[in-house]
Design brief:
Keywords: Methyltransferase, Transferase
GO biological process, one term: methylation
GO molecular function, one term: methyltransferase activity
Helix content: 25-40%
Oligomer: single chain
Protein name: FkbM family methyltransferase
Number of strands: 7
Organism: Cohnella suwonensis
Radius of gyration: 15 Å
Shape: globular
Largest sheet: 4 strands, parallel
Strand order of the largest sheet: 3-2-1-7
């Protein structure tokens, strides 16, 4: 299973439990603060025997991406800069950070046959699909 845009790991924990000890889950989260929380949540649920956390963004090509990391609503972070509409409705600030971008096809040998893919990456889905 893949969890692309894992955030703090709510769905990663559920998927890891569904996978069971014989299954595998790769959880991708590029936001530096969220990636740490994701790792911790998988740890406290005893799921590292079947999960791998990847602190990177799923993208078309490998490399480095400009990432707009929300400082208040962490789940609203994106590779796309927030627009005027967002900024009118949210009291939020963004830090522009560089994150690693990975192409999921480059890990196909690790994944093998996938049974489930969850993607929630704030407008970056198209670019992730191009890398699949």
């Amino acid at each position: 299973m893949l969890d692309i845009g894992a955030n703090i790991g709510y769905f990663s924990v559920l998927l890891g439990m569904l996978a069971g000890p014989e299954g595998s889950l790769w959880a991708y989260e590029p936001h530096p603060r969220l990636a740490g929380l994701l790792f911790d949540n998988l740890s406290i649920n005893y799921l590292h025997d079947r999960t791998e956390t990847v602190a990177a963004a799923a993208y078309t090509l490998p490399g480095e991406l400009k990432f707009f990391a929300s400082q208040r609503f962490l789940g609203n972070s994106s590779i796309r800069a927030p627009g005027d509409f967002y900024l009118r409705h949210y009291n939020d600030e963004f830090a522009e950070v560089a994150v690693e971008a990975v192409r999921l096809d480059d890990r196909v040998d690790d994944f093998g046959s996938l049974d489930y893919v969850k993607i929630d990456i704030e407008g970056g889905e198209y670019r992730a699909f191009l890398g699949m």
